[in-house]
Amino acid sequence: MAEILYNNAGVPLVGFGKSFVLDTVGGPLQKPKSTSEPKTIDPVTISVDDTDYVSWGSGNNFPDVALGKIGRIGVLNTGLKYIRNFTLGQGIYPVKVEGYDDKGNEVLSPVSDQGLKRFCQGRMVRQYMAKVARDYFKIGAGFVQLLPNEDGSQMTGISTVNAQYSRLSKANNGIVEKCIVSGAFPSQPSKGEYSVYDVLDDYDPLDDLIRRRYAKKIKGKSFIYVIRDSWSNNEYYSEPIWQSADLAGWLDIASKVPAYLRKAYENQITWKWHVQIPYAFWDRKFPKEDFETTSLRKAAIDNYMDTIEENLCGTENADKPIFTFYEINPVNQKAEEKWIIEPLDNKTKEGDKLITSAAANSEILFSLMINPNVMGAGMPGGTYAGNQGGSNIREAFLVNIANAWLDRQAFLDPLEAYIRFNGVADDIELRFQNTILTTLDTGAGTAKTLS
Predict the structure, then answer these.
(1) pLDDT of 50-75, one tens digit each?
(2) Cβ contacts of residue 203 below 8 Å, gap of 6+?
(3) For residue range 198-226, what is the model confidence (pLDDT) as tens digits?
(4) How far apart are CA 428 and CA 108, in angstroms?
(5) Phi-psi map region of 350: left, alpha, beta (phi>0 left; psi -120 to 50 alpha)
(6) Which residue pairs, CB below 8 angstroms and at least 24 apart, start in 276-279?
(7) Radius of gyration of the chain from Cα atoms?
(8) 3-state secondary structure of 427
(9) Which residue, 92, 145, 285, 326, has most beta carbons within 10 Å?
């Protein structure tokens, strides 16, 4: 006789008998509204074909503004690319989890399905991962397009729609239903300048796909799977991780310091010394009566000054002395015909600006959770000093990989929905491969791991 366990509402959860075990699968008939209902009150919208789409930023131009800032600030651009690269590692691999060792690590075994291996390591998945990670880290959200075959029975393609050109519809009873894609944004797109796609339910996208297949509502369509950084509380478009550094003003400092120095070098006067020569010196050195004309006397003085400059300037004459002679007036005991040579004080201290720039770079990397030493941005002393040794960099890299787990799962979710929809068994999972830096005493410079 079968025994069935029910919940308080009388819904069967699990059952078992002599020769079978059953469990309940599928999505609930009614989802809790709080799981996917955006809380933004009266968001700014644009209307296209009688559908309201939520503006991304007050001027519907946040992606353009964000990409402009990233493009102007080298440390931010490089830091984001570094995050993308270590997060994606060396690609994904299908495996089975056979169990766990004594240390709690997964015991993984390869799968025999060669078609699935080729899919995971092929160009289509590689390009999807690179582009969705780009949008996710740069702008804060990724828009993944799932493409079914002709009859809607299988998924045959996965790609990333450029987030810069994507906007979501205003929630209807807590559910975002549409995504519009247009190269005209942030301006209002005209007819023929946009495409509209159905957005998969954020509560359970795979279950949404399966329901659509049963209802025969997949044929001839493609679908958008939205991934966001859950740290952001904006349920339409999540903020990128670096935005805190921007709001604090560090991006402005990082961009203004090089602009200031460039202008300073363009406009500065490069005088080094102020040489003061008394008029009486010229009367004694070049008496007027020794020259037939004033022009000849001027030419002699010019040649003399050129000779002085040539002998004192340039790398070959560094630290070279100059000898001048003068006499003391017997009446007032003051020096006469004495040259005075004074160094000019440069009020602009470029070194101070570079310290400020280095501090801004460090603060930006901190907002990305990157140890500045990994990027070669460690400073030799002061507030931002750090150990730049190999062990420190290696440990920081390992910490980055450990922290990448949640972001990696976000990128894997659309792929797992793809393969589950196509019938891949639940016991096959996807894992990332990492190249781990090791010390020389291990006998190898790197080691491969799956995570």
Answers:
(1) 899 999 998 999 999 999 999 888 88
(2) 27, 31, 35, 36
(3) 999 999 999 999 999 999 999 889 999 99
(4) 10
(5) alpha
(6) 276/339, 276/340, 276/341, 276/342, 277/339, 278/336, 278/337, 278/338, 278/339
(7) 35
(8) coil
(9) 92
Residue 196 makes CB contacts below 8 A (sequence gap 6+) with 48, 49, 51, 178, 179, 180, 181
d(CA 132, CA 408) in angstroms, rounded, equals 11
108 vs 101: CA distance, rounded Å: 10
How far is the C-alpha of 244 from the C-alpha of 96, rounded, in Å?
A: 39
Contact 437, 248 (CB under 8 A): no
| Residue 300 pLDDT > 50 | yes
- Torsion region of 397: left, alpha or beta (phi above 0 gives left; psi -120 to 50 gives alpha): alpha
Does residue 291 have a pLDDT over 60? yes
CA–CA separation, 162 vs 133, rounded Å? 11
Which residue bears the tokens 């009614």? Answer: 30
Q: How far apart are CA 225 and CA 281, in angstroms?
A: 86
d(C-alpha 164, C-alpha 62), whole Å: 9
Q: What is the DSSP string of 186-209?
A: TSPPPTTS-EEEEEPPSS-HHHHH
